[in-house]
Amino acid sequence: KSLAEQNSAHVAWDLLMEPEFVNLRQCMFSSACSRERFHKLLINVLIATDIADRDRIGREKLRWKNAFEGIENWAEEWKGKSDDELAKIDVSGKATCVLEQIVLASDIAHTMQHWLTFIKWNERLYKELWAAYRAGRAENDPTIGWYEGQIGFYDGYIIPLATKLKECGVFG
């Protein structure tokens, strides 16, 4: 599962570990622990872009529910708390969930931009899927149900994703 996403994480990490980026790594990581934490985060957010993995989607929905259920926005959760109380709130789960959603949005950003941008990237996706089908690497002809699939993608994925990003309140 998530082979393309795992490859992306591997390529990104290998590139960051090249000698010419030693100064960048020293700025990014104060310790081996922080480097390892970043590496895990990188893998997790890139794996999150595998929207075909139903199990992963289920786990992501559960994490979101656990992090945000019953909270209108972060301001409400933090309202009236002292600095000491605020310092004790563990926001790492929320931050990870929000970061995943931002990466998911960036992965399909063309769907929320100008029509010409949408068409450009959607056509490239179609051609990639068509080439895979013609070469025998994909079972389904992408032309069958393409339009309905696009509508379903908006209704079932893009709109809920945009709603989550709005509801978590990180963009104001």
UniProtKB/TrEMBL annotation:
Pfam families, alphabetized: PDEase_I
Biological process per Gene Ontology, one example term: signal transduction
Transmembrane spans: none
InterPro entries in the record: PDEase_catalytic_dom (IPR002073), PDEase_catalytic_dom_sf (IPR036971)
GO molecular function: 3',5'-cyclic-nucleotide phosphodiesterase activity
PDEase domain location: 2-167
Protein name: PDEase domain-containing protein
Organism: Minutocellus polymorphus
Top-rank taxon: Eukaryota
